[in-house]
Amino acid sequence: MNYPNNIKKTIKNPLSHKNRGMDLEDELNLTNDYYLEINKALIYKKPTPIGVAKVSYSKEGKVIDRAFFKEPSTLDYNGLYRGKYIEFEAKVTMNHTAFPLSNIHPHQINHIRKVMEHQGIVFLVIKINALVYLLTGKDFINYIETNNRKSIKYAYIKEKGYLINYGFRPILDYLKIVDNLYFKEEL
């Protein structure tokens, strides 16, 4: 873009694949903070387990120059809700027709199975086409066991998933869906 006095400025592409899920994570973090504030649930973002290999020092303090992943991480969020263990993964896709299964690693799929075996609540929160869906661990596992595709069709997510509506507080009230799925008798 040309500005007066021949000053040239470039506009950077605001879309970065590296941080494409950050908005969803921010929304979920604010939602979980609200749940904690009203004492509805204890759900936290799990830190990625890293080991520090090299540190340097600056005026601001220690700076990590080199680090490595200690072990594969499981899912993004975990905690307790109504006496039950709850865990979920949050993912964003820019693909408008499908959710790529490459976004979920094999060790995460195994972990989802383990949480289900132990009667925990486990699901995916998927943002696709600017909409946010909750897809249960059961429906996710069923899909990958009965399909040879490398992605989950958007039609399947719309059919089996539960639309999480945006609100003010909380921003994404996913526990309303969890209540209807897992605690219907108690409501």
Write the layout of secondary structure elements.
Layout lengths: L1 E2 L3 E2 L13 H16 L4 E4 L4 E9 L2 E9 L7 E5 L2 E10 L4 E3 L5 H12 L3 E8 L2 E6 H10 L4 E3 H7 L1 E2 L10 H9 L5
Q: Your description of this structure?
A:
The protein has 187 residues and is an alpha+beta fold. Helix content is 29%, strand content 34%. The protein has 5 helices and 12 strands. A 6-stranded mixed β-sheet has the order 3-6-7-9-10-12, sandwiched between helices. The model is unreliable at 9-21 (pLDDT under 50).
Instruction: Output the structural class.
Output: alpha+beta
Q: Main sheet: which strands, in order across?
A: 3-6-7-9-10-12
How many helices? 5
- At CATH level 2, the architecture is 3-Layer(aba) Sandwich
Q: Major beta sheet, specifics?
A: 6 strands, mixed
CATH class: Alpha Beta
CATH fold group: Trna Endonuclease, Chain: A, domain 1
What would the principal axes of the Cα set say about the shape? globular
User: What is the average of the pLDDT values?
Assistant: 85
Roughly what fraction of the amino acids lie in strands? Answer: 25-35%
Q: What Rg is obtained from the alpha carbons, in whole angstroms?
A: 20 Å
What percent of residues adopt helix (DSSP H or I)? Answer: 25-40%
Order of helices and strands: EEHEEEEEEHEEHEHEH
Q: Give me the count of strands.
A: 12
Ranges with pLDDT <50 over ≥5 residues?
A: 9-21
Number of domains: 1
